[in-house]
Design brief:
Layout: E1 25-26, E2 31-36, E3 108-112, E4 120-123, E5 138-144, H1 149-167, E6 170-176, H2 187-196, E7 203-207, E8 217-221, E9 223-228, E10 233-239, H3 246-255
Parallel strand pairs: 5-6, 6-7
Antiparallel strand pairs: 1-2, 2-8, 3-4, 3-7, 5-9, 9-10
Length: 258
């Protein structure tokens, strides 16, 4: 699989393990090249299994106190700790990682929610906002690595963009996969990244050493999946970084309340 420039369709087939083999900055696409593989478990368009959402990548704890419905939570809409008014059940399977597919509600990571001072479990289900009651109009799942120049550029821009984006109801989860030495990410790396770029108040940054949204083969980082919080459907997958994302802004505008 050859590296694709940002904006091209991303064929998503997820393996349980992956290995980075290069840190080539692709000038044409503003992307860092990474190579992924699989160890026999191909999720593809199938449902995610509970066993694939445990461990450091997707913590085993629940979201009480950290998410949208938890008491005193630090996650989206978590301030004050009241129960969310959103009573819609999470969208049903089949789940997948390609455009047009639904993100599995079982996904969880260990790291830092927006504005958090301590690490916790960050669950994708906390960002589901079927009726707009949480004020979430668009979600960006951003897969990044510390060694990636394009990811560094994007993180610097997020520091400037996020105050305005948050006002528009845009929420970002940065999924860190590797450190500067290409060692798989830890929660410590997530903390380092959010602190370095001063995005901790506006962006959730988590450890994702298994590369939840990475396809097999060559991929351009950062890898960005834009998700509609009304349906948890992936509306666009982008590889590399080229500045403002009109698709993300358009989705937020579409879902904004009159």
């Amino acid at each position: 699989m050859t590296t694709k420039a940002r904006g091209s369709d991303a064929r998503v087939a997820q393996g349980h393990a992956w290995v980075t083999v290069g840190a080539l900055l692709l000038a044409a696409s503003g992307a860092c090249n990474a190579m992924t593989g699989a160890d026999g478990l191909s999720l593809g368009e199938q449902d995610l299994r509970a066993s694939d959402t445990t461990g450091e990548t997707a913590g085993t704890g629940d979201t009480t106190g950290t998410g949208a419905t938890g008491g005193g939570g630090a996650g989206p809409g978590g301030g004050g700790g009241g129960a969310a008014s959103n009573a819609c059940p999470y969208p049903a399977s089949p789940y997948g990682k390609a455009e047009g597919k639904t993100v599995s509600g079982a996904l969880k990571w260990q790291g830092y929610a927006e504005g958090a001072t301590e690490p916790s479990t960050v669950a994708i289900s906390d960002y589901y906002d079927c009726d707009g009651s949480k004020g979430i109009n668009a979600i960006l799942l951003d897969t990044s690595a510390e060694w990636c120049g394009a990811c560094i550029q994007e993180a610097g821009d997020l520091q400037k963009e996020m105050p305005a984006w948050k006002e528009k109801g845009i929420r970002v989860i940065t999924l860190m996969i590797e450190d500067a030495s290409r060692v798989k990410a830890t929660v410590k790396l997530a903390d380092k990244w959010r602190t370095k770029f001063k995005i901790g108040d506006t962006v959730a940054v988590v450890s994702d050493p298994n590369g939840t949204f990475l396809p097999m083969g060559s991929v351009g980082l950062p890898l960005q999946a834009i998700v509609d919080p009304r349906t948890m459907t992936i509306t666009k997958v982008l590889q590399g970084y080229g500045g403002p994302m009109p698709e993300l802004l358009a989705l937020a505008a579409k879902n904004a309340k009159p």
